[in-house]
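step=predict obj=4-hydroxybenzoate octaprenyltransferase n=321
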Amino acid sequence: MNPPLHSNGNEPANAGSAPGGLPDLSDMRPNDWVERWLPRSWGPYARLCRLDRPVGTWLTLLPCLAALVQAADGWPTLFRLFIFSLGALLMRGIGCTLNDIFDRDIDSKVERTRFRPLTSGQLTLKNALYFLLGQFAVCALLLFAINEYSRWLAVLLVPIVVVYPLCKRFTYWPQVVLGIGFNWGMLMAWSDTQNTVPAGAIAMWVGAVLWQVGYDSIYAYVDVRDDLRLGVRSTAMRFAEQGKAWISGFYAATIALWVYGGAAIGMGWAYYVVIAVIAAHFIWQMTVFSLQRPDRNFMLFRANMLVGVLLIVAALAGTLI
């Protein structure tokens, strides 16, 4: 997803900086662990599936871990933790690979994505497709480690992951589809642990979907200038100058659903204390969020990893205290 970091003649002279003293919004960062530790031929594949930027994987995994705790009414098994963690890593990688395949022509015209492997020529389309099939093959093996109910849910996830990169071409709400797919593991955590998905678990999942619509809309404001020029769509374009009000509404709905979901599945009092901390964190995000500071939005997007950690703490507190 990033520009070549080695002196191979492909990288721009100003990689990692922006002209005119403006913040560089490229999601390429020079001299990271991919460049330092991986063989050069592996780097484009690591960047294609976003191994160099694990925040998305954590945002996929953390709500799923919270659901595993709630479904197990305490500590889930180590085996289940391993399978769901690997599944989150792979499905996020598949989603990112598909996104870059579909968007390879658009990405070259967007400041944040202009140096990704397919766009910059570090990787051919054929090799990206082979890599995609390899990731799907490993995911297919994980189906043998979960129950039949969860296998069907996993199959239903595939078209959601495939269609998401295309959504920005015909709807202002691609973040909703992304949220559905990103948090699908929460439903599977219940189906695999208890062979059922109760109403409270569905409420927790819908809350996580709305949470993602909120924080990914913050992220989308980084690209809004390029999106307007290219004719692609996002919630940031839909919300326009009312972004803070919309995102605040999604965050408020998230808290309401997590309160209801916790009550429906029998969380203890300590769960609600931690949910109140999450609500305070959302309020802080909205005080910092600014349409005029897209560089600040990266920080706010990453700050949602703390929300995921707190959601796990809430689940543990609600089951163990």
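step=describe
DSSP finds 16 helices and no strands in the chain.
step=end
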